[in-house]
Amino acid sequence: MIVTHLSLTDFRNYTTAEVPLVAGANLFVGSNGQGKTNLVESLAYLSTLGSHRVSVDHAMIRQGAEAAIIRARLENGERQILAEVQINRSSANRAQINRSVIKTRDLPRYFSSVLFAPEDLTLIRGEPSGRRRFLDELLVLRSPRLSGVIADYDRVVRQRNTLLKSARASGVKGNQLGTLDIWDDRLVDLGSQLIEARSALITELQPEVTAAYTAVAGEDHHATLASQLSIFSGSESDDAGGAALRRDIITAREAAVAFRESLVRLRRSELDRAITLVGPHRDDLVLELNGLPARGYASHGESWSFALALKLASANILRRESNMGDPVLMLDDVFAELDESRRLRLAAAVADFEQVLITAAVLDDVPAALTGNTVHIAHGTIVGSTP
User: Fold this and answer.
1) Does the structure show a pLDDT above 80 at 211?
2) Can the keyword ATP-binding be found in this entry's annotation (predicted)?
3) How many structural domains comprise the chain?
């Protein structure tokens, strides 16, 4: 799949923007702060319904406007699709496919993309929440039905926490709180599905990450992935740090048994602290290089290579499974952080994707093979292109 045209209205610093795109490499060039990243952010929103930069949608609406519109013409073989989303400041967002209204949450069914940005270094160096989000976004791109499982699980955790807080405030004992058992059942059911899906995805990602890391770094540092699950932890801490690493697929049945045992064991602690202490919302994806945790041990260059490998592995899995063709691969301000050899290796690694969108402040930072269609940007305006 490729994007043949991107239209923006009141998105970030763009009053309007009309950007024709081509198959293969497309490069957006401009000084920092001109709006390059805003272009790839808008397309990423179409496929994930989220931004890699902000947690609230209204931050993407141009100051003084009430709504922002992202519209993209997509092409997959002979099939053409017009995908559109309107991000509203004070009402629910709206989406359309070929001018017909659809549920906004269904947009990712029509468009698939993978974005790498400097913020993705937090996958290596940051907190577990970012790695959980990485896994869940990829799960939804592969299987949109899982968005419902994830949303329902998050809702159950919130409601269960509310019940635990009420119980603590009123002094109710755990064995007197019959409604908690009902929420436990939902928590275990949904959480076990999510644990199984994540562990299967991690297993599938492993060989792709190993190959992608070697392709980018030029060396095999034994990049490995593992699950660290709070339901197998003997600790009552706020994360899964005390749990042994798992590199196999954990079935929903196995997860459900361990989940229930953990809830029974931690019931008193949960009532004391008024939070749900175990479940997928407290798990982690552990990343290792040469047998050591990448978080804390990886150098800056190794961290960049690992983060890139995770995104390239994601793109390779999506392109293998999708009937929509390759996902659109987007590289935001990547090449300035890489040395010359890594730049050339990355260019080679992405060369066969149907479409690659790249942003850069300096044209010379990008290998010539990726500068085929260069779009120049200044002050939120498309000032010209160089085929």
Assistant:
1) yes
2) yes
3) 2
